Amino acid sequence: MIFTFFYYVFSTFLYILSLPFLIILSFKSKYKKSIPARFFLYKNPPFKNYTYYFHSCSLGETKALKPIIEKFEKINLSVITNTGFEEAKKYKNAEVRFLPYEIFLPFWFRPCKSLVVMEAELWYMLFLIAKKRCQKTILLNARISEKSFPKYMKFKWFYKKIFDNIDLILAQSLEDKKRLKKLGAKNILVMGNIKTYFKPNITTEYIKKKKLIILASTHKNEEELLIKEIPNEYQVVVVPRHPERFEEVYQTLKKYKNVKKASKLIPKNGKFFLENDLILMDKMGELVNLYKTADIVILGGSFVDNVGGHNPIEAAYFNKPIISGKYFFNQQALYKEVENIIISSPSNIKKAIKKAKPTKIKNQASIDKIINLIKV
Predict the structure, then answer these.
(1) Phi and psi for 75 in degrees, rounded to 5?
(2) Which of 67, 98, 191, 333 holds its CA 20 to 30 A away from the CA of 9?
(3) Minimal CA–CA distance to 65: which of 142, 118, 123?
(4) How far is CA 203 from the centre of its chain?
(5) Backbone φ and ψ of 266, nearest 5°
(6) Domains identified in the chain, total number
(7) Percentage, residues of the chain above pLDDT 70
(8) Nearby residues of 92 by Cβ (< 8 Å), 6 or more positions away
(9) What percent of the chain has pLDDT over 90?
(10) What pTM, to 2 d.p., does this model score?
(11) Residue 296, helix vs strand vs coil
């Protein structure tokens, strides 16, 4: 009780001290919605419905919640950032708010069935109040990286007080569980990383004529960098990321081999036979179908330095060998979750193909088990 009093007073002091900066920042487009809502409660009233309450920080965490949120008829969802808010608004079953600054929570927070907080959103007042007003408090997809762990340990006394108000922690891995336990967390279950969850919907069956390589989600210049390096013993399907590039890529591929557009393939008994050694996939939504058939996947968006890579989970779901370029800075967290991805330069693709091994998702989440634990 004494700690909570001093924590609240200190938080109020920080708020008053920060007011001039908050007012200035609120005029910037990046913060024009979040700061007025979070720090001044502008157009940010309490939730109306008594239901399950989810909280995430930004875009990535909010997107990762999709397979869980869609299993509920109605939920409340709060976020921190503008990008998280825009993503949250896409969920038709969600009432969406910005999470107010902590000094407002005693007056703003309404009772709920379960509070479910994503990853490292360890707000003391949020869990303290939810512990009193909700049936259950849960930290979902919890993780503490090896790099950040020493910093957390310096404030172990503080995090222990937060964990005292969390009923259940669903950790990404055994290593995360061990670190959380050292910080004072209790009742920890390892449930995997929900960002690795993927449930394929196979709509088309493709039949290859020999070993098949997929150049997946390629961007400008990548097709030309890669196609000339692939041995002739492989059949290749090129799948550009953006449909407006289909014709451009077709003209590029014609310089190297006889290429056929997938839209010209004629199905036989409901199946599409990949007849040519080089095929341009000029239809959308076929990448997962091709992953199922492929022998090796070369993941685009990673061989040029202005994209940041693409999600490897879909190909890894089928245990396909994956070869990537070194520019995957937007997908680092998911790359860590997949074993045996080979990082290669375009000029070393031949060697990478020879060394390629089946991939495996390390901490794949069980969504059904997680939902059963959330529901009271």
Answers:
(1) -140, 160
(2) 98
(3) 118
(4) 24
(5) -110, 125
(6) 2
(7) 100
(8) none
(9) 89
(10) 0.81
(11) strand
Which is nearest to 222 in space by CA: 351, 356, 357, 345? 345
Structure tokens at 299: 């993941």
The rounded distance, in Å, linking the Cα atoms of 67 and 80 is: 20
Q: Which residues are registered as beta bridge partners of 56?
A: none
Domain boundary among 191, 215, 241: 191
167, with CB counted inside 10 A (0-12, 13-18, 19+), is middle
Residue 171 lies in a domain: yes
Contacts of 238 (CB under 8 A, 6+ apart): 215, 218, 223, 227, 249, 253, 278, 279, 280, 281
Residue 142 near residue 51, CB atoms below 8 Å: no
From the DSSP assignment, how many helices (H) and strands (E) are in the chain?
Answer: 17, 18
In degrees, rounded to 5, the angle at the alpha carbon of residue 77 between the alpha carbons of residues 317 and 67 is 20
Q: Are the CB atoms for 99 and 55 separated by under 8 Å?
A: yes
Q: What is the three-class DSSP state of 254?
A: coil
275 lies in the same domain as 148:
no
To 5 degrees, how large is the angle CA 108–CA 29–CA 126?
25
> How far apart, in whole angstroms, are the C-alpha atoms of residue 36 and residue 43?
8
Q: In Å, how far are 43, 170, 197, 371, 375 from 138, measured between CA atoms?
A: 27, 8, 19, 11, 11
Amino acid 15: pLDDT: 97
Task: Tell me how far apart the alpha carbons of residues 131 and 114 are, in angstroms, rounded to a whole number.
Answer: 9
The pLDDT assigned to 17 comes to 97
Q: 236 φ, ψ to 5°? A: -130, 135
Q: Are 109 and 50 in contact (CB under 8 A)?
A: no
Domain that holds residue 83: 33-191
